[in-house]
Amino acid sequence: MKKRIFDQLNWLNDEGPFITIVSPATFVATEMNKDRLHFKNLIRDVRDKFKEKYPNVNYDPYESALNDFYEDRSHWSGGAQSLLFVINKKKSDVISLGIEVSPYSYVANVPYIIPLIQDIQFLTHFYLLTLNRDSFKLFEVRDRSLHEVNLPEDAPSTLEIALGSDVSGSGFPHGSGRVVQGDNRGYYGGVSATRDERSVDRVNYFYAVDRFLNESEVLEHNLPIELFALPENRSVYLDLSKLINLDRDMGILSSPEDFNSSKILEETLMAIEMKNKRTIAHLFDTLDRYKAAGRVQNDERKISELSEYGAVSSLYITKERLDPDDYQTNEIAINVLNSGGDVYVLNHDSRLGPNKMTALLRYTV
After folding, report:
1. What is the pLDDT of residue 49?
2. Cα–Cα distance list, 103 to 72, 205, 211, 347 (Å)
């Protein structure tokens, strides 16, 4: 989990103080000014918090970064359900989230990452690569809705565009690698092609798609990539793909042949719901095993101490028991991540009891 957090915010452990702002973003044109007004109010709020908590620290770099965020309308015109703004005196970043948040601002020596943990712990915000043997489309899934990613004109959206009818043996467009077998070079799947030729064309086409996705800027957010394809196409693509964020453990095994958005979304949400349910079931099965071994701690003060020593393997946080200014829980979560543990923010469940946090320990204490 730490790697996924650092993929989004690789300067997590840089020197503070940090300002963190979480803000909803409707991304509806008529609501844009309203969203920006909420953010402007948060800027005023965070300035007061900062000057009270760090009176001797120069606030100018923070104010400049916040004003830049406010003025950049691209943040408010599309991309995610919510936004997480993180700033220290040298760096600033904005992260798109696929979860609902309440607007709030935080000032501390470390960034407030609880919303980021909520966003990545389960599959709620991701890219969906819908792949046929001779065509593909790319979607971004967020807030249980499907948003097609606009591809450039030269994208290998179809096999014919990618390979053409007279490609030389030197390679494809986009610099893709090409499989050449005998006299099959230069064909693309058509009526006259043999089965072997079509198989070679499929591999060649998938190389072109994968190379394009790796080299272009269409995957602008650092999100998981889920594959929607028939089993035979999925296995071929997984064998050759170099995409770092491609999920190799789960896929939607169906044909996106006609790219019907309603069908694609329906089947994707079913698959994601099943995966998230399996993840939650696994978390509670693990909790039961740790309870049986006497390696569970619920006392917040003791959990804080144990997190500093690297004794916490996993931390379960009950979402409903979080306070708006819950800095201690955030610091404990960062300690757990830094020691190689995992952190989950879960909806209230009787198995978690009345406590805000449940820590699964690496050893008995």
Report:
1. 95
2. 19, 45, 39, 20
